[in-house]
Design a protein that fits this description.
Two copies of one chain form a homodimer. Helix content of chain A is 29%, strand content 25%. Chain A is of the alpha/beta class and 249 residues long. In chain A, helix 3 packs across helix 4 and helix 6 runs parallel beside helix 7. The longest helix of chain A is centred in the first third of the chain and has 13 residues, at 58-70. Chains A and B meet through helix 1, helix 4, strand 5, helix 5 and strand 6 of A and helix 1, helix 4, strand 5, helix 5 and strand 6 of B. Strand 7 (132-136) of chain A pairs antiparallel with strand 7 of chain B, so a sheet runs across the interface.
Chain lengths: 249, 249
């Protein structure tokens, strides 16, 4: 029996957003490896080994999965959203690059998913309907100076922006600095979406102007989308629609 | 009976990448509206009306869907990939913004999907594993000067970049100019992925250096991904892995 590793995107939370390809891989797997809250989303069944680990242990988790596959196991590494967007796919390849040569020739597949920014955008309307960028605001893996530089250039390019990992208990102040940079670069009227726990029972959306945005509006389960200069609201009964037209002003 | 409109992302091509949420909406629909090749991907069944239209008729298509829903029909507008990324969601909201006031209060949902750049990235490895941007290279809806400006700023920000609609028969020359700008901004060694017809039977991937890239490598069914300065290859038997590490150099 030959082993394999699949890195599977479970989407943002709801089972209705898990692709059939990912469900099929989970059915064929002998082992599931991942951050505990994501492993908890996989249905248990006899013969399926679940290996849950802590956050920030991506490289160890990847090495564990590769070692299991080398032993002939069929391993799914589960990621939230899409595994290629600020998630486990890059960590797996980092482990392969620095690991034993035999790991390179394993059967490895990345199974795409619905990434959080697209699920969040869909709930609010279409704020990413024109050119946009995605930035991981965690400064665990890059210096603040680079984040600031990217924010300023993205604003100058008039991209809509989606932020992953805007704020955590370990980094309570970074997002306040992000909002400060954006206020300088985009002015107070720019529209922002805070989308928390998208597609989960405790989902919460709010749309505010940059002048009214506060750091406390975000946590690690929040995606923040900043509109471009063209992003606007369509008022109606209930929640307005937030969208960016396809053509540029 | 009250009508609704859902804009559904069918993913890049394979049925294994269509979410259960989208499949459920298609099951409940009375009408499917969309560009003919996407409508052709919807299974026919008695009582389901299929309304296929030409490309570049997005606003008329959206108005048609809204009129049907006003009459109490349950309408799915089908999009390739994710409907919020260079697809039908923004066109629908443009139609709503300029249309009759009653359209604003219709039941409207955007159903996210696996967008082409993420499916393409997954096939090649994880080239979008760090901060990135997505740019529509069609200049039907924006001036070339803006495209060039965004390319230069994205290169300066050291984003990986994903390009949608890089080249068409109506715009044979734009992509050559894009490659010229990128060569100036990123040098000849930058890695590029050309991913055509991702997840379809005629899928084709190629990875080249910018100095070897030619405009003819792309057409309207191609997604082009340009690596950041950190994007690299892991050589192995068969196709190498293309990926961008999570941390910055």
């Amino acid at each position: 029996m030959s082993g394999w590793v699949a890195v599977a995107g479970l989407g943002p939370g709801s089972a209705a957003l898990v692709t059939p390809e990912v469900s099929a891989a989970l059915t064929e797997a002998t082992d599931v490896v991942g951050y505990a809250p994501y492993v908890a989303r996989v249905p248990e069944r006899p013969g399926l080994m679940l290996h849950a680990s802590d956050n920030r242990e991506e490289l160890a988790r990847a090495a564990h999965a590769l070692a299991l596959a080398t032993d002939g196991r069929r391993v799914v590494i589960v990621s939230s959203g899409d595994p290629g967007v600020f998630a486990m796919a890059a960590a797996l390849f980092e482990a392969i690059e620095t690991g034993p040569a035999t790991w390179r020739d394993l059967d490895i597949r990345i199974l795409p998913g619905v990434t959080a920014m697209l699920a969040a955008a869909a709930r609010a309307g279409a704020p990413l309907g024109h050119d946009f960028c995605a930035i991981n605001l965690s400064d665990n893996l890059k210096p603040w100076a680079l984040i600031e530089r990217r924010l300023r250039l993205a604003a100058e390019a008039d991209f809509a922006m989606a932020f992953y990992n805007p704020r955590s208990r370990a980094r309570p102040d970074g997002f306040a600095r992000v909002l400060g940079v954006l206020r300088e670069a985009c002015g107070p009227d720019r529209l922002l979406l805070f989308a928390r726990a998208i597609s989960c029972p405790d989902e919460r959306l709010s749309i505010v102007r940059l002048g009214d945005a506060a750091p406390e509006m975000a946590d690690m389960r929040t995606i923040v989308i900043v509109g471009s200069s063209a992003t606007r609201l369509i008022e109606r009964r209930g929640t307005p629609i937030l969208y960016t037209p396809r053509s540029s002003a």
